[in-house]
């Protein structure tokens, strides 16, 4: 199966491990992630101003790139890994479907591009795993169950909010829990799994991010977790800030999948060491 893939900026800079592990586990699921041609930054956040159209140009340009590539590969699904890219692209896509006036304005503005026809489906990689592959198949692909791992799933905000855009119940999501179980690890339920990590507060007031990180890590440790798993590069960055809190590693869900699927050689040596240490295999 060939699926279009939008990496976004962070996956090419500070979250290279996320991209590398995702591409590798996708291969194990017989999925080829084909990087979008000439993609650009999606804009990072969805602009809420009612009268704004220009703030959505970047995302629409990426959707046009996907529209062009979809004709080549015969599939309209655009897969993302970064939660913020997913949220921005999907919300802009849905807005263009609902607001014909904004769509016309943007199409006219980008007169050197073909018109966007709103035929692209934006998906997060987790949706592909749940809805196309299925967790039963994940269990069958697991050759190294993640024994001794007590995993706290951390969703953050943009993967599950707002309702109608997010990939799961925004109050009580279960998609990460179901994946963790399929990989043979123990799920640790903890009340901070949908609490904001402080996002871009870290840019202008690092103390806010540090305090929130401390709360989340303390909660995960208090509820019995020995590792936190996330889907968002910004959450991953904030949760790894050096603060006075329990030492608990934070990894991407695809890194756990790589170990479970037996392709852990592609992982960063330190990440691999941490996971195997917790499993008691170092």
TrEMBL record:
Domain of life according to the entry? Archaea
Q: Which Gene3D superfamilies match?
A: 1.20.1050.140
One Pfam match, given by its short name, reads CCG
InterPro entries given for it?
Cys_rich_dom, HdrB/HdrD_reductase
Q: Where is the signal peptide?
A: none
**Cysteine-rich domain segment(s):** 4-90, 151-239
Q: Which UniProt keywords apply?
A: Oxidoreductase
Recall the GO molecular function terms of this protein's record.
oxidoreductase activity
Q: What is this protein called?
A: Heterodisulfide reductase, subunit B
